[in-house]
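DATA SHEET
Item: assembly model
Revision: 1
Owner: S.N.
Input lines:
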Amino acid sequence: MKKGVQLWCFIMLVLLVLSPTLNAQESVADDARLEAETTLDQKFSAGNYSRRGAEGCLRCHDDESDHPASGIFANVHGKIANIHGPMRDKQCEACHGPAGNHARSPRKGQLREPMVTFGPDSPVPAEKQNSVCLSCHQDTQRASWHSSEHAFEGLSCSSCHRVHKKQDPMLDAGQQIQTCTTCHSQTKADLHKRTSHPMLNGTMQCSDCHNPHQSVNEFSLNQPSVNAACYDCHAEKRGPFLWEHEPVSEDCTACHTPHGSVNPAMLKQRLPQLCQSCHQVPHANVEFAANDLRVRGGSCLNCHSQVHGSSHPRGQALRN
Ligand code: HEC
Ligand code: HEC
Ligand code: HEC
Ligand code: HEC
Ligand code: HEC
Ligand code: HEC
Ligand code: HEC
Ligand code: HEC
Ligand code: HEC
Ligand code: HEC
């Protein structure tokens, strides 16, 4: 047998032996999740909200940890003045569900009655977690959340947002970029390349181009097309030009990468290769002196400087 085949057989054998144990562990965890979920559903239909509201909860939850539950009072959700906010009505229970018997000490050998929790480790499925937030936030910004790539991938609102902190990480450029690039490592790598949009210093952030809540536009962009997104800030590239360069008006990413590149000006390829990738036989009909420095420089831009388009009467070859 070849070495590769032997190794393959060995791996399959190990998997075969291990799989019943792995499955058993998984199903225990699944059972616990299911039980918690069922209890929470029952609590919701019983609807036993506490009378003391936030005050009652803080008796046990306002601890000295570096991120105590009362952190919520430092942001919009904690403001009683906010008429649509949680503090106006069910308070903590607007998000964590009715208290029921949660505050009672559990009987010996039993667990405390659970509350709705958020984030990837919660037994509550992401979709249900999100329905809590969407009960107040189903507006135009999130109208197509359910068909977004992020919803499809099982992210919860809490994968990105923090409601018990003074500053929501998504509304701070530095924290936003850090959160997004924890999952999007390729984008992170791009940001550190030779040229990139100024995101590392916080001048720009992901949400300048993306709305991660929606699926209406491709790549969850803020605008209906890539070019429309770029024109938001680079309006001068829109023209109209007397002489257009076809790929420019079609798709900026024919030549540029949006997040960063090892080449100057975030170009996808070096010059002149970039131009030659589309223009196979340039200058079949133009002759240059053998010692023309512009040609020796190797860059097409030495002559075709108006690569985004020209409005000069003689700008047909994008030279002026
Ligand atoms: C008598 C004390 C007590 C009161 C009152 C209380 N809790 Fe708890 N709560 C606990 C304890 C202890 C835990 C730790 C988890 C456990 O034992 O299962 C907990 C866990 C939680 C959790 C899950 C935290 C985690 O890390 O998974 C949430 C959410 C929660 N409580 C919310 C509330 C809310 C909202 C209220 C008010 C309606 C409230 N609690 C009232 C004692 C209390
Ligand atoms: C009871 C209604 C309610 C629920 C439930 C609710 N929110 Fe809010 N939220 C509000 C209101 C009201 C505001 C303030 C909006 C405004 O002023 O335009 C707000 C603001 C926000 C903001 C902007 C924060 C800022 O500093 O400006 C974020 C982010 C947010 N909510 C996320 C969430 C998430 C995530 C959840 C679920 C865990 C959630 N909300 C649940 C009512 C709610
Ligand atoms: C992939 C990360 C991500 C997820 C998941 C996410 N958000 Fe956001 N959210 C953001 C970013 C980024 C912003 C800032 C957008 C801006 O500046 O316009 C934001 C802003 C907000 C705001 C305040 C501004 C506004 O658009 O009204 C609210 C409210 C909000 N999100 C609610 C939610 C809710 C509810 C969910 C879950 C259904 C959710 N978000 C899921 C990244 C996320
Ligand atoms: C707007 C919805 C919302 C409200 C209102 C709310 N919480 Fe939370 N709570 C969350 C989310 C989401 C998390 C997950 C961590 C985060 O986002 O900061 C959480 C986490 C927690 C935890 C788990 C420990 C932790 O910090 O991760 C406890 C305990 C808790 N909340 C208690 C409370 C108490 C007590 C109140 C009332 C004073 C309250 N919550 C009000 C949404 C809410
Ligand atoms: C200047 C606008 C702009 C900014 C800022 C921006 N993007 Fe993008 N992003 C785009 C465009 C345009 C595309 C689609 C075209 C492409 O990938 O070439 C895209 C595609 C993506 C994709 C999907 C395709 C892929 O490359 O995997 C992800 C994921 C992504 N961006 C994440 C991010 C993150 C995370 C940030 C913040 C660190 C960010 N983007 C900032 C414009 C931007
Ligand atoms: C918990 C992990 C996680 C976080 C945090 C996260 N994403 Fe994503 N995102 C994903 C996954 C998984 C996909 C789908 C696979 C892929 O394209 O990489 C995705 C897809 C995308 C896409 C492509 C969507 C499309 O419609 O084609 C964009 C753009 C994107 N994310 C931007 C962001 C931005 C901006 C943030 C921060 C505000 C962010 N993501 C935070 C996991 C995450
Ligand atoms: C939110 C505003 C904004 C949007 C949207 C935007 N840009 Fe930029 N762009 C900038 C800023 C700011 C700079 C840096 C300018 C400087 O350093 O002088 C820049 C620089 C550039 C550069 C030159 C980089 C260099 O290192 O020379 C290119 C190329 C570029 N952007 C292409 C694009 C493309 C393609 C898009 C669409 C996918 C786009 N931009 C969308 C703001 C934006
Ligand atoms: C045919 C390839 C090509 C396409 C398509 C293209 N560019 Fe460029 N772009 C270049 C080249 C080459 C440079 C470098 C110019 C230089 O070094 O003088 C550049 C430079 C830039 C710069 C930085 C210098 C400047 O001129 O401001 C920005 C910003 C820019 N492009 C934006 C865009 C936008 C926005 C689009 C889409 C509307 C686009 N580009 C489409 C080739 C292209
Ligand atoms: C993605 C493909 C693509 C890339 C990359 C590209 N071009 Fe073009 N270019 C075209 C197309 C398509 C046309 C219009 C059709 C034609 O005349 O060939 C055009 C037209 C031109 C013209 C005008 C020809 C005329 O007579 O109308 C010049 C000059 C030119 N390109 C130079 C460049 C230079 C310089 C670069 C590199 C910076 C470049 N092109 C990169 C596709 C591309
Ligand atoms: C020394 C100046 C110079 C350099 C360098 C140069 N060109 Fe040209 N290019 C011209 C002239 C002059 C024309 C003819 C203009 C006219 O007919 O009006 C032309 C025409 C073109 C055309 C139009 C189609 C054609 O063949 O007539 C394309 C496409 C083109 N060049 C691409 C390129 C590319 C790609 C490069 C880099 C590999 C490049 N050029 C480098 C001067 C230059």
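QC remark: The two ends are 67 Å apart (CA to CA).
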